[in-house]
């Protein structure tokens, strides 16, 4: 009985699976996300740890039998500063944060982002650790002075539960890790002006590392002291594993708050002269990587249009059905995040737009144009990541049959969707079982899925729509300003 815990940005979820990969108990509770002036987005570590305790206690009480391990995954990027006891020295800074927008733009102009990308294959964006740490070093150095470790969500929770200061190699991948050696690239750190803060970076844990609940963690969760705990990989990698991505060339589309597109590869080589965006994420398997293009567009854009139009999210499917492919001529660019875009290009000034509107158009056309534009962004990302094999998908966005069909038609390929939505927790549990020496049958777990086929005539139509999207994007990029 391994409890998988997925600590998302706005929701923490715990799931217990049977040996065939079917969930037998689950619980969820929201986390608080503070949106502050100046594009700042923060979270309280104590509150997040409290959500973990809530869901773990709930599922542990619902199962018949002892808990044998705890498998953690969760949001990545951002900066979670802690002291030696795991206490936050300041509120955690989210990956959604935009306070370093201007700094990132300066780094792009000065060639810093290009240099880091050339060394690690990772593009930087305002919410990544490098930009946030550099911003804090200039504007809030006392916080860095008080901290012992600058880590991420999963390792912050793990420290509170086990007392261990660690980081999974997947979290450490962006932006300082050399994917081939799984070691930090000191020149990349120096390029960001952070060599004097190098001591804040925990060394990546070895593959199959297992920690154990200490007395505090046991009391917090109501579980036995000494219970095995695994801390990672973080949610992008865990979701790929949980969905069934196994072969190089296979990919996954995570239609969540953001649009995370990833392709599995056994080759860490990259075009050092290409667009400095995306990242190579190390996986639990040495020699395998996920080439990730985590765009900032996603279901947050759908939430925005629902608020704007005064509708509920469940109405989206019906509105999509009211319009037609091409949204009666309405086009959109979906870049609504205050921190711009991070894949497959990086631009803190990226902003959304609608065009082709007239008095004849209604809200169904606006909704469809936005959903189509997000699907075009997914195609852009997956092409940049090198998708050549099977495509899996998960996240809140694929709960809409109508929107999932748009994704399949725009991408021109079938989409495999796991029947259980908790794929992040699934992946964390599979990794934990492997680390404990009692692996589950991954093929059996991956068999619980359905496939959405594309409609050939829609694929042909969307070829032209994608070309128009690319042209609109190229024109807009010359106009964006911070």
TrEMBL record:
GO function terms (MF aspect): kinase activity
Carbohydrate kinase FGGY N-terminal domain: residues covered: 1-242
Keywords from the named record: Carbohydrate metabolism, Kinase, Transferase, Xylose metabolism
GO biological process, one term: D-xylose metabolic process
InterPro entries membership: ATPase_NBD, Carb_kinase_FGGY, FGGY_C, FGGY_Carb_Kinase, FGGY_N
Keyword hit for Transcription regulation: no
Domain Carbohydrate kinase FGGY C-terminal, chain residue ranges per copy: 303-433
Family: Belongs to the FGGY kinase family.
Protein name per its UniProtKB record: Carbohydrate kinase
């Amino acid at each position: 009985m391994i409890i998988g815990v997925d600590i998302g940005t706005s929701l923490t979820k715990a799931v217990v699976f049977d040996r065939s990969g079917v969930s037998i108990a689950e619980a969820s509770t929201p986390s608080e996300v503070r949106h502050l002036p100046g594009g700042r987005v923060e979270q309280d570590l104590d509150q997040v740890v409290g959500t973990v305790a809530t869901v773990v206690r709930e599922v542990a009480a619902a199962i018949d039998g002892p808990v044998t391990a705890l498998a953690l995954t969760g949001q990545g990027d951002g900066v979670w500063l802690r002291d030696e006891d795991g206490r936050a020295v300041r509120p955690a800074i989210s990956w959604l944060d935009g306070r370093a927008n201007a700094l990132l733009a300066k780094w792009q102009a000065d060639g810093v982002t290009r240099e880091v990308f050339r060394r690690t294959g990772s593009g930087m964006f305002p919410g990544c650790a490098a930009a946030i740490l550099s911003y804090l070093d200039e504007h809030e150095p006392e916080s860095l002075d008080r901290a012992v470790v600058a880590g991420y969500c999963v390792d912050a929770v793990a420290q509170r539960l086990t007392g261990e200061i660690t980081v999974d190699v997947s979290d450490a991948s962006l932006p300082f890790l050399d994917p081939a050696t799984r070691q930090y690239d000191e020149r990349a750190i120096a390029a960001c002006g952070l060599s004097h803060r190098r001591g804040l970076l925990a060394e990546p844990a070895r593959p199959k590392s297992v920690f154990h609940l200490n007395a505090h963690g046991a009391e917090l969760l109501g579980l036995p002291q000494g219970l095995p705990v695994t801390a990672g990989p973080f949610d992008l990698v865990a979701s790929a594993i949980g969905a069934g991505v196994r072969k190089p060339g296979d990919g996954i589309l995570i239609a969540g708050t953001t649009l995370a597109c990833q392709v599995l590869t056994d080759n860490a080589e990259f075009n050092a002269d290409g667009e400095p965006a995306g990242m190579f994420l190390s996986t639990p398997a040495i020699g395998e990587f996920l080439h990730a293009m985590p765009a900032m567009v996603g279901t947050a854009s759908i939430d925005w249009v629902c608020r704007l139009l005064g509708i509920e999210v469940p109405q989206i499917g019906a509105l999509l059905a009211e319009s037609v492919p091409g949204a009666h001529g309405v086009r959109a660019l979906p870049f609504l995040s205050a921190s711009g875009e991070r894949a497959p290009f990086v631009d803190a000034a990226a902003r959304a737009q609608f065009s082709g509107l007239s008095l004849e158009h209604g809200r169904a056309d606006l909704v469809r144009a936005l959903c189509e534009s997000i699907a075009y962004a997914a195609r852009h990302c997956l092409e940049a990541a090198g998708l050549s094999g099977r495509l899996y998908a998960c996240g809140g966005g694929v709960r809409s049959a109508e929107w999932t069909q748009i994704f399949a038609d725009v991408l021109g390929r079938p989409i495999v969707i796991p029947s259980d939505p908790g794929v992040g927790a699934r992946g964390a549990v599979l990794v934990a079982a492997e680390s404990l020496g009692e692996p589950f049958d991954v093929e059996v777990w991956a068999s619980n899925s359905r496939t959405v086929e594309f409609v050939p005539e829609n694929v042909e139509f969307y070829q032209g729509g994608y070309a128009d999207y690319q042209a609109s994007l190229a024109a807009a990029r010359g106009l964006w300003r911070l």
